[in-house]
Specification:
The protein is an alpha+beta fold. The protein is built from 3 helices and 7 strands. Strands 1-3-4-5-2 form a 5-stranded antiparallel beta sheet, covered by helices on one side. A two-stranded antiparallel sheet has the order 6-7. This is Thioesterase family protein.
Amino acid sequence: MSTQIFERPVHIRFSHCDPAGIVFHPQYYYILNALMEDFYLEVLGTGFIETWKTYGVGFPIAGIRSDFAAPSRAGDKCVGRLWIERLGESSVRFAMTVHMGEELRLQCVETAVCVRPSESAKGGLEKATIPDVIREKFAPYVRDEDLPVLELRA
């Protein structure tokens, strides 16, 4: 079985750029968050808020690492790619890249932890096991041995 890679067009907008005309690095996190939300909508059939309502869990980001490989400029038509490097018992390590053609612009890994509302702390959260239905939907996107792990400098 070969890993499915989720892809979406990423259009670099003027609002993403700093006065030098290149993407201001925090804007990439907005771009990646939109890619992740599209992944949830297509793969789970729910957005972030609806995942809480439908499955009783959420996946906040616990860690993020990224490398900015080459600048992107307003008007660039890039492609965002997302797959899962590791699917654990209660965490998911997502890998994402942004390319323009064959040129890598950004690579990033995010670790998300599955949580549910805490029964002991009002308004709190506690770590949870990833529900089987979500695990099954994520499974096609889990990296196999043919897809290398992202090598990050950061």
